[in-house]
Design goal:
By secondary structure, the protein is an alpha/beta fold. It contains 15 helices and 14 strands. The strands form three sheets. The chain has a seven-stranded parallel β-sheet, sandwiched between helices. It has a five-stranded parallel β-sheet with strand order 3-2-4-5-6. The protein has a two-stranded antiparallel sheet with strand order 1-14. Strand 11, helix 13 and strand 12 form a beta-alpha-beta unit. Helix 7 (about 125-140) packs across helix 9 (about 175-185). The relative contact order is 0.16. The structure holds nicotinamide-adenine-dinucleotide and D-malate. The site of nicotinamide-adenine-dinucleotide has 33 residues, from helix 7 and helix 9. This is D-3-phosphoglycerate dehydrogenase.
């Protein structure tokens, strides 16, 4: 499964057979993206050597990766086939976070490299950011703040909309999606949701009305996206599905940028079909010049991929991934695989 397979089902087991018991106990670990210092401390306390080198270029990474047994990343390092091929001694890649779409999991698996993530470690932070985006979008807060800082007093221009009584459509009812749905219901919203895996009974037990994707598009005042980026979700919010939405729908994306077709979204914003969009993630990050029209659009609220950027979540995921990887290297139990 895209976000870590067994990690989502909480599978546990031993991996002695996977990592090999004849290897030396001490491993060489590279931390390739910026993580909380607790990550490095855990590896050291368990007897492993660690290099903390965030921000290396692809060429630099390719030239040094061969000497490492383990690699820790967030979303910066692209763990593609080239890197995996060059990583001759690699045994584990750990994602200090949820989405593993920056890791070529099939290529890693074919080389016997275990891929792990830390499901759940940043759920609350990302759900809270999503709520901030929903409220900011409903009340035009970022635009109003900018206008005041520019010396204006535009009370009428920034008239917003209430959440109470409106319908929120949640696409992807996993950890974050369900958390967001619950908070939206606490604001008096009606929550409908679509998830091909979750049973209707489980959705109903969470207070969410299970609907088809087409029904969700037709009835939602706000649509919030919480799926992984997969071939099925890439470009999901494109021209044809936007046509199925209510006029004046507001769209929030704190999952993965590639789920929205940016050109179709800009057109829908210009036509008034979409009243506003609030984005934390982009098809390519940082957004290249061709996304400038989207990012600078007056009806778009944006943040630079801050979903998991709280001290709480960063300490949690950095610690969790180091413990999980150490457990594997020590031939113990594993989670998040
Ligand atoms: P999760 O695995 O708990 O939930 C994902 C859900 O999406 C699952 O229930 C799955 O069945 C569902 N899904 C898969 N394909 C679908 C489809 N085609 N249509 C509808 N639903 C589908 O994951 P999560 O922890 O809730 O994370 C969700 C997303 O948020 C991931 O893409 C993750 O990478 C992203 N994320 C972003 C940030 C950020 O910083 N903005 C932080 C954490 C997670
Ligand atoms: C994730 O999938 O966990 C997020 O994108 C957060 C991060 O970048 O670490």
């Amino acid at each position: 499964a895209p976000n870590g397979g067994a990690a989502q089902s909480g599978r546990k087991g031993t991996v002695r057979s996977l990592v090999g018991s004849s290897r030396p106990a001490l491993a060489n670990i590279l931390i390739g993206d910026s993580t909380d210092p607790v990550c490095e401390s855990v590896f050291r306390s368990r007897g492993h050597a660690v290099d903390f080198k965030p921000g290396l270029s692809k060429e630099e990474l390719l030239s040094i990766i061969g000497k490492y047994d383990g690699l820790v990343v967030r979303s910066g390092v692209q763990v593609d086939e080239d890197l995996i091929t060059a990583a001759k001694n690699m045994r584990i890649v750990g994602r200090a976070g949820t989405g593993v779409d920056n890791i070529n999991v099939p290529a890693a698996t074919s080389k016997g490299v275990l891929v792990m993530n830390t499901p759940g470690g940043n759920t609350v932070s990302t759900a809270e950011l999503t709520m901030s985006h929903i409220l900011a979008l409903a009340r035009n807060i970022p635009q109003a703040v900018s206008s005041m800082k520019e010396g204006r007093w535009d009370r009428k221009k920034y008239t917003g909309t209430e959440l109470m009584g409106k319908t929120i459509g949640v696409v992807g009812l996993g950890r974050i999606g369900r958390e967001v749905a619950t908070w939206c219901m606490n604001f008096g919203m009606h929550a409908v949701g679509y998830d091909p895996i979750l049973t209707d009974d489980a959705a109903l037990a969470a207070g969410i009305e299970p609907v088809s994707l087409d029904e969700l598009f037709a009835c939602s005042d706000f649509i919030t996206l919480h799926t992984p980026l997969t071939p099925e979700t890439k470009g999901l919010i494109g021209r044809s599905n936007l046509d199925k939405c209510k006029k004046g729908v507001r769209i929030i994306n704190c999952a993965r940028g590639g789920i929205i077709d940016p050109v179709a979204l800009v057109d829908a914003l210009n036509l008034g079909k979409v009243a506003g969009a609030s984005l934390d993630v982009y098809p390519s990050e940082p957004p290249p010049p061709e996304l400038k029209e989207l990012v600078t659009h007056p009806k778009v609220v944006c943040s630079p991929h801050l979903g998991a950027s709280t001290q709480d979540a960063q300490v949690r995921v950095a610690k969790d991934i180091a413990i999980q990887m150490c457990d594997v290297l020590d031939g113990g139990e594993y989670v998040g695989v």
